[in-house]
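CORE FACILITY INTAKE
Project code: CF-77B
Contact: R.S. (postdoc)
Sample description: multi-component assembly, two entities in total
Requested service: structural model of the whole complex
Turnaround: standard
Below are the sequence entries exactly as provided by the requester. Do not edit them.
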Amino acid sequence: MDLGLLGQYLLNGLMLGMIYAMVAVGFTLFFGVLDVIKFSHGDVLMVGTFAGLATYLGLESVGIDSPWLQLLLVVLVSVSAMAVLGALIAKFLILPLKDAPPLNTLLATLMLGSVLRESVRLFYPNGSNPKPFPRLLPTDEWSLGTLTLRVDNLILLAAGVAAIVGVHLLITRTKLGLAIRAVAQDGETARIMGINFEWIVLLTFGLGSGLAALAGVMNGLYYNETNFGIGLLLGVIGFSAAILGGLGNVYGAILGGFIFAGLQTLGSVALPAVLPSVPSAYKDVFAFTAVIVIMAWKPTGLIAEKSSERV
Amino acid sequence: MAHLVIENITTAYDKADVLQDVSLEVEPGKITCILGSNGSGKSTLIRSILGLTPPRRGRILFDGQPITHLATHRIIASGIACIPEGRKVFPKMSVAENLRLGAYQESDQAVVARRLDQVHEIFPRLKERTGQFAGTMSGGEQAMVSIGRGLMAAPKLLIIDEPSLGLSPLYVKENFNVIRRINELGITVLLVEQNVHQTLAIAHAGYVLLQGRVVARGSAAELADNEEVHAAYFG
């Protein structure tokens, strides 16, 4: 294989890994603070993408057409709206179920995900068809031999790195991060320290959901298309990535995201080469199968999680 | 001031540990102890004061203000701190982070730094181990982290739950000395213990809980001679 193509695969894998990591971090944060699995997470990402799309269309209709201003507002509206939605879901669906068996929360959020998905399909204009997502970033290209670098992809990669580093700094360096880690390690003792437990839970769900919205907008900008079903696949992938890394561990989730993207990329390269009759679209099947094998080998995730090792 | 008054509280929750019509008073500046064996309701009493399991009936006043149904973080904000049973350090955090969490509600860095110096003065070991994960320390060192963390809140009232539990006799003795020193700093102490003799040696007054009820009260000297105390433990 030539180097340019290899580079292309590598960049694509990094981009996907970034998006998956951003989704997986949400799963792992939610599990960290409340020991719950919030299955509507992927669909919140999708709603965030559509909120961004609607913002773009709204700006177009009132004649604001500077791409940078559009981009800024699309990201701002999408991220803040989903942060609020995530906090509301925590407040009215997840916290009331805090003392119920965890399966109830899983089921309730699974159903909420369906409601969000079907609502977009039904109520967003022509919602059941794929939507073009605008190109808001410059699409200049640089050719390095057979490798083509696009400016928009590089910006997206940089934005993803910034988001992940930002989360890392928030968790490790700020007072809010200290409180999130305290709640994750021992919720009751955290309350005895004077931490407002409910407020930290809501902020954590807001943080994870805002991050998912950013991932959704980045996904839209990358593929220039979105649809009401993207949350389902991205949700399952993000969840797998979080489990792969060890649920509850932020760095495990990030690692899991990149591993999953690596497996997909490997699948799309290796499958057609080894089995010419299998199209590269089976890369997801390959990646999920590999996840099952890894889970059988390391049932608690790659970065071993004991109950005392949260976030 | 740090005057805690508990009036006729009844608390029940699913773990069967129940308080019935309990009244008691913690006088400012003193060490007040609650004696009782396992299952006597000591933990539930603390949970009630901290708002973790609010009482079903009765009320709790701190410096005249009712705190009965406040959220835990508001009760802490009123000047109460707790050194929980079993130390409950945050295992995957450094000693420094554990201590910082003790002063979570204080946002003035200078004040936090000053309190940290005071804690380091009482426990020089914690200064040496500042970057170590608390979960990797010995039981005695974790007790220092937990007590230091309680002091970081600079509370008016410090609730200390079973400080001698699971510690070697040497540390137990040291712990009681530390509690006396804390009280001498002007902090009111509510000490919950099973260890009768050492507790009564440092306490000013106390109560005996048996099956969720107060069965005896009085000064430490009175309690030392009280039949109910012996009955509660040995009867």
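Facility notes:
- Chain B has a mean pLDDT of 91.
- Residues 19 and 212 of chain B are 4 Å apart (CA to CA).
Invoice: internal transfer
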